[in-house]
Amino acid sequence: QVQVVESGGGLVQPGGSLRLSCAASGGIFRFAAMAWHRQAPEKQRELVAVITDTGITDYANSVKGRFIISRDDVKNTVYLEMNSLKPEDTAVYYCNLRQVVGRDYWGQGTQVTVSS
């Protein structure tokens, strides 16, 4: 049974850092792209960062220069390093794993709260 498990969320002060992880298990995977999305209260879900299987990355303008996405294909894991966090980064963060062939997977979501 395939499982996608996120971890690393929490409460952090403005200017602080967090590292999110999202790991897939229970299957044989080849992910074309791995991404992080977020959804703040009463707002639509938005794409935060994406990394392809060739290592190409892209970021939302609001997080460029502060967030870094990376992946470990041996561990079927995608990471999001978040630095210089701002209150407006507060949201539930979801990972999305897109296979070369087959369905997408979503994580269950992890809450990130930036507040003093």
List the helices and strands and how they pair.
Blueprint: E1 3-7, E2 10-12, E3 18-25, E4 31-39, E5 46-52, E6 57-59, E7 67-72, E8 77-82, E9 91-99, E10 104-106, E11 110-114
Parallel strand pairs: 2-11
Antiparallel strand pairs: 1-3, 3-8, 4-5, 4-9, 5-6, 7-8, 9-10, 9-11
Helix and strand sequence: EEEEEEEEEEE
Helix content: under 10%
**Estimated share of beta-strand residues:** over 45%
Class by SSE composition: mainly beta
* Count of helical stretches: 0
Which consecutive residue ranges, at least 5 long each, have pLDDT under 50? Answer: none
Radius of gyration (Å): 14 Å
Tertiary shape: globular
By DSSP, the count of extended strands is: 11
**Nearest-integer average pLDDT:** 96
The end-to-end span amounts to: 40 Å
Largest sheet: 7 strands, mixed
Commentary on this structure:
- The chain is an all-beta fold.
- The protein is 0% helix and 55% strand.
- The chain has strands at 3-7, 10-12, 18-25, 31-39, 46-52, 57-59, 67-72, 77-82, 91-99, 104-106, 110-114.
- Strands 2, 4, 5, 6, 9, 10 and 11 form a seven-stranded mixed beta sheet that branches. It has a four-stranded antiparallel beta sheet with strand order 1-3-8-7, with no helix packed on it.
